[in-house]
Amino acid sequence: MKEPEQKPQGSKPIYTIKQEKDLYVTMRDGVRLALDIYRPEDTGKFPALLAYGPYGKELQTLVLTFPPQARPSPLWDGCIEAGDTNYIVPRGYAHIVADARGTGKSEGECCGIYGATGGYEGRDCYDLVEWIAQQPWCDGNVGMLGISYYATVQILAAAEQPPHLKALFTNGGHYDTYEIGYHGGIMWLFPRASREGRGGDSGDALGNATSAMRKRLSKEEFERKLQERLRDPDIQNYPNLFHMLHYPDSHPLVIDFLLNPCDGPFYREGQAINKCEKVTIPTHISVKWGRGWTVDGTIDCYLGLKGPKKLELQPLPPMQERPFHEFHDIMIRWYDYWLKGIDTGVMDDPPIKIFVEGIKQWRSEHEWPLKRTEWTKFYLRPRGQLVREPEPLETDSVPPDGFYQAPLTVTNTVHSLKWSTPPLLEAMEVTGPAALYLYASIDTDDTNFIVKLYDVDPYGSRIQMSTGWLKASHRELDEDNSTPWRPHHPHTSSIPVVPGEIYEYAIRIYSLSNVFRAGHRIEIELSSQEPFTDAALALLPPDSFHLPSGRATTHKIYRDKNHPSHLLLPVIPI
User: Fold this and answer.
1) Quick check: helix, strand or coil at residue 374?
2) Taking the model in full, what pTM does it have?
3) Where are the alpha helices (DSSP H) in 185-319?
């Protein structure tokens, strides 16, 4: 692996740690939030880094004693995300870990998450930042840290523009709230794991939680929405969600996602992606390849930020170890520069740094997508071929490919179709967003289209490089906000499919960066279901599969002269 050029190092570890547990800070509305303070055992003043989250500050103390774990270990707990105190404090920073309202030891009510419904996270972080800045051990310079939820709230906090919040360091945040619960309109089941604790995740440390939909809707409207979701065949064939809809008050946070299968006010009122243009302070924003919805959300957020900024697209595997400890050397160099005024060289390089899979090398760039991209079409052809030449024959001469998929209630078999290039004669770099344009008909009113893009070596071993999802009923395109390489579906309505009618489905494939070596093949696989676990899913958080389709459906994929199904890839000249 080619390492980045050596840069000046950050602060050295010279301080011991002083702890102050279970302090309470009063917010502007009178609610008291609980927090722990870890700071240098010294009489001086230091910059401070705030981590604010719902998983319980006591859980975060495991970073002091528990060795980091990687997926797919069941000891990996995705909720230990507030940062490595043993690394941070000795280098001259205070580390403050706060319980979000309604969670852990904090007072108040937890209602909506990641800024949904307008949210309280940003306002609470504003008040905490200003309180921290006034403490006798703080020099008035405050930053924030943490991954996933802890990263998302940094954007919400900075959008409120607290005077003493001077910089951010975010990693793996979820900035598009709709995409926390739905990918291409297909429900993602991970939010239940992260909110309620499943598969190793501890979940939210809920003290007082309320469904936003329960508060917002009348009793009659709430019941109507429950019954509407219960009529969905996908729900009827998934017992956990069937149970949740009958006992909604037992699942106050997840029920809000379940009752909002389309994008709209619940997600948009307070989500981070809509607030990033209000962030004017220096922001280092990063994510690891392999969780495409988070990758594209991170890139979108980066593009919207208005202050000094850096984007880092980091290597596989897709999940950081837990307790979170990685990339702290970069974080300290970032905060040494912006909070301590030390020239660590963090702003010397171009604004974007990407890790190119396949050749395992870091590279700096100036823009995204890359200006030198050659947008290249690879056409689906008979016998599973994926080539640059379109099909010259009509449908009668080259009938469609097809597959039948029964619900997973009656089979364990996931059927799929595959198309692949011939072995490449020379290496090909693919860096950027991609898309699959698919002409298809089905014999039901809805289905799932699940696309996986692989790098296949000469021996047949393959590595998943990216993914795409689209629910057929969510095929509507927002033409004004779409590009060929980034089709934009508003997901504001569900439009049933007319059985037997051929539609063009524009399926967004999340950004990737990979060099497909000579002799390797580019392969796409299309299905309407996915296994509950496979090699790629095992590296993601618990319950990272999607709600299976409950319909028994025959799929026909057309790839002829009049239906030029194709994969659009961002090819970078080598």
Assistant:
1) strand
2) 0.95
3) 190-196, 212-216, 219-230, 233-236, 239-246, 254-258, 265-268, 292-304
Q: Tokens standing for 294?
A: 């988070």
Bridge pairing between strands 138-144 and 165-171: parallel
Contact 526, 400 (CB under 8 A): no
> Is the CB of residue 326 less than 8 Å from the CB of residue 482?
no
Q: Of 175, 168, 160, 171, which Cα lies nearest the Cα of 144?
A: 168
**CA-based torsion, 163, 167, 173, 176: positive or negative:** positive
Which residues, other chains included, contact 516 with Cβ-Cβ below 8 Å and sequence gap of 6+?
358, 424, 427, 428, 429, 430, 455, 522
Maximum alpha-carbon separation in the chain: 83
Q: What is the pLDDT along the chain (574 residues), one digit of tens a residue?
A: 444 445 567 888 899 999 999 999 999 999 999 999 999 999 999 999 999 999 999 999 999 999 999 999 999 999 999 999 999 999 999 999 999 999 999 999 998 878 777 779 999 999 999 999 999 999 999 999 999 999 999 999 999 999 999 999 999 999 999 999 999 999 999 888 888 887 778 999 999 999 999 999 999 999 999 999 999 999 999 999 999 999 999 999 999 999 999 999 999 989 999 999 999 999 999 999 999 899 999 999 999 999 999 999 999 999 999 999 999 999 999 999 999 999 999 999 999 999 999 999 999 999 999 999 999 999 999 999 999 999 999 999 999 999 999 999 999 999 999 999 999 999 999 999 999 999 999 999 999 999 999 999 999 999 999 999 999 999 999 999 999 999 999 999 999 999 999 999 999 999 999 999 999 999 999 999 998 878 888 888 888 889 999 999 999 999 999 999 999 999 999 9
* φ, ψ (nearest 5 deg) of residue 383: 60, 30
- Distance set, CA 528 to CA 198, 447, 495, 559 (Å): 25, 7, 18, 18
Minimal CA–CA distance to 569: which of 421, 351, 422, 382? 421
Task: Report the sign of the C-alpha dihedral through residues 41, 171, 374, 524, in that order.
Answer: positive
Helix, coil or strand: residue 495: coil
| C-beta of residue 466 within 8 angstroms of C-beta of residue 509 | yes
In angstroms, the CA 170 to CA 570 distance is 27
